[in-house]
Amino acid sequence: MSKILLLNGTQPYPHAPGHLNKAFIERAEAWLTSRGHDVRHSAVADPYDIDEEIAKHQWADKVIVQFPVNWMGVPWSFKKYMDEVYSAGMDGRLGNGDGRSSTAPDENYGMGGVLTDTAYMLSVTFNAPRAAFDNPQDAFFKGQSVDDLLGHVHLTYRFLGLPQEATFAAHDVVKNPQIEADFARFEAHLAEVFEESAHVAA
User: Fold this and answer.
1) What is the 3-state secondary structure (H, E, C) of 123-170?
2) What is 3-201's CATH topology?
3) Which of 34, 55, 131, 149 is the most exposed, having the fewest neighbouring CB atoms within 10 Å of its CB?
4) For residue range 16-48, what is the model confidence (pLDDT) as tens digits?
């Protein structure tokens, strides 16, 4: 079975302590371990060793990245984790430069990542309702999808070479939560992702 890194990108606050994102991590672990997958954890808000975090990414077959979308992006502690861990890994452990060469300085930017056998999956929580996305009539997002909004996160993992799995999103979790339904959709999403992976591997 697969080796899975569960990365909790939550920054706890008094008004938002991160219980829901932790619950998604716990659901993922229970679902994965019940099917024989090997699971390890990281949490960006906890103390971490940079070399150990790099080693976890090298170990994993898949990284599930769980975080709340704060101000249209990742929490600040997750950005700090990226800056510290992923930058340190550019010594060859996660990437070999930016992919360009001195003989072709305009080609292959962003293609130096070495984790090409380690896929990633984003799982995110939003205050924004589902209807706000993929809707050209929406006054704020103006037709953007969830993946459009999170393009900078996708590019970060593409820079490290990781292939992308389908994104999961739980919407309207503050004003109109449907948590049990979200959990059921999440487990169905995991089943689709891991069944597809098993089929490809076979």
Assistant:
1) EEECCCCHHHCCCCCCCCCCCCCHHHHCHHHHHHHHHCCCCECCCEEE
2) Rossmann fold (3.40.50)
3) 34
4) 899 999 999 999 999 999 999 999 999 999 999
